[in-house]
Write a structure and sequence with these properties.
The protein contains 15 helices and five strands. By secondary structure, the protein is mainly alpha-helical. Bound molecules: tryptophan.
Amino acid sequence: MEKKNILTGIRPTGRLHLGHYFGAGKNWVELQDKYNTSIEIADVQALTDNFENPQKVKKSVRDLAIDILAIGVDPQKTTLFVQSMIPEIAELTVYYSNLVTIARLQRNPTVKTEIKQKKELFGEKGEGITYGFLGYPVSQAADITAFNGELIPVGEDQLPLIEQCREIVRKFNSIYGVVLKEPNAYLSENKRIKGLDGNDKMGKSLGNAIYLCDDEATIKEKIMGAITDKNKIKKDDPANPDVCMVYYYHKLIKNENIENVCNECKKGQRGCVNCKKELIEKMNEFLAPIQEKIHYYEEHPEIVDQILKDGSIKAKKTAEATLKTVKSAIGINYFE
Ligand code: TRP
């Protein structure tokens, strides 16, 4: 049986943090053995809200590729490519843009939330929203369908974008004939990773993230500042681990001592400072093999660039074939 196609993407606007890793990245590594996997570094999408900072996007493309390779994505198994190197995606976006209304895009919950978060860029009430940003779900549908994406490993926040893609696919197929595949989201067991401050989401803009490339001093400082049970005043007060971010991360990185951490915390036999020190140690152990690879690729940027180049050449071939099928379905395959 043919292997199913996995396609996912990530915007290059910074480095990978634990939220990315446990929310999606870990899945990418596990899925690459079973499926035909592609990962897109979505620089065109990143420009939709960073059009004034192209240099930030450019730098992040390689940084992100380094982090992706360091978590174990294997370029022999996964096609890692850069969105802007595949102009066919932009062309597909144009044809798909006819199949979605502006009202529908404005109702997309992910787009709505992002517009609210980006008031500086898009205005208090979103009155300065650009055509490009509002339309990025259409471009994401082009990303997915260009590679016949069937399973899309993403975090929960991306579900409305997958739904938007499914609608575009259905509309396309109903008008031009059944050509495109409807993708399904593939959620990880940890749908959403909490931040150091207890926020429901770890995010760059929230300033509550641990990055895979954080050095020991940074990790120490961040974990020392993590939120614990605020009702615990003294070192030997019993506490509730379920509201403690330190316990949450012990669990996340699978500290083998987790039962003790939990019981001692509940019984008041574990001070928060010691508990944090243990987490710092375990976190460094957890990150060490990843960081070793990060350093290797940082010293060999030419290897990273070659991987991206080869991946993009391969991806382009697939996208070219999809575009050809799409154009002939619409009937604009002249002079063939
Ligand atoms: N929207 C995703 C993000 O915000 C990135 C992305 C771009 C993507 N293209 C995709 C995700 C295709 C899944 C499939 O990071």
